[in-house]
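> example.struct
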């Protein structure tokens, strides 16, 4: 398996990279800054800005079997990192004839989902409107693509160890769930790469 990981320098992306290497994959890590990623014979580092898009991303993507996108932002206003970055990733993969794409989104995209905790449903329109609107646009772009996609929607991410005991619902938040460790998310992303159980779906993960 030749895997390309976009957003490889973030908290989730790093775990995906290390987990993929442990599974014996050949991995290409893509991010603006790749300092701190391990040296490994099956790891290629490709510094690139997804917002720039275009030919560099397409050339990087050529020859891969699948991609995981963990691009994201901690800012309230993401300045298009999800929507513009998502479009750039989709275009690059389609042009490079890479069919499989797994994208990290968020359970908060469905802000009126009754499964979300009440305080989270209240907080989104008050403080996180721009962030989740950008994610919604990204999801629409991915769904409209010609790719074999999966939109993975985790709860609020923590740095705790993996438990393997999270809940998963298709397109809706597990009732009352709000958190998930990045380690459990990374494992789910890689398992989905192996099984394609959630192809053309939006699995939502929380404890």
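> example.seq
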């Amino acid at each position: 398996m030749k895997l390309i990981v976009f957003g490889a320098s973030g908290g989730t992306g790093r775990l995906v990279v290390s987990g993929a290497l442990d599974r014996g994959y050949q991995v290409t890590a893509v991010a603006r800054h790749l300092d701190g990623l391990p040296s490994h014979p099956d790891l290629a580092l490709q510094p690139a800005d997804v917002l720039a898009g275009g030919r560099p991303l397409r050339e990087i993507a050529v020859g891969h079997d699948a991609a995981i996108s963990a691009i994201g932002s901690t800012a309230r206003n993401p300045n298009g990192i999800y929507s513009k970055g998502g479009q750039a990733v989709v275009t690059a993969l389609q042009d490079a004839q890479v069919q499989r794409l797994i994208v990290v989104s968020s359970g908060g995209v469905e802000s009126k989902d009754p499964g979300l905790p009440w305080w989270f449903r209240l907080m989104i329109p008050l403080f996180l409107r721009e962030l989740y609107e950008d994610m919604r646009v990204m999801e629409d772009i991915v769904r409209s693509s010609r790719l074999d996609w999966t939109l993975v929607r985790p709860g609020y991410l923590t740095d705790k160890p993996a438990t393997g005991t999270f809940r998963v619902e298709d397109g809706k938040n597990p009732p009352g769930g709000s958190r998930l460790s990045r380690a459990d998310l990374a494992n789910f992303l890689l398992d989905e790469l192996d099984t394609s159980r959630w192809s053309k779906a939006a699995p939502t993960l929380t404890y």
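> remarks
The CA atoms of residues 87 and 141 lie 6 Å apart.
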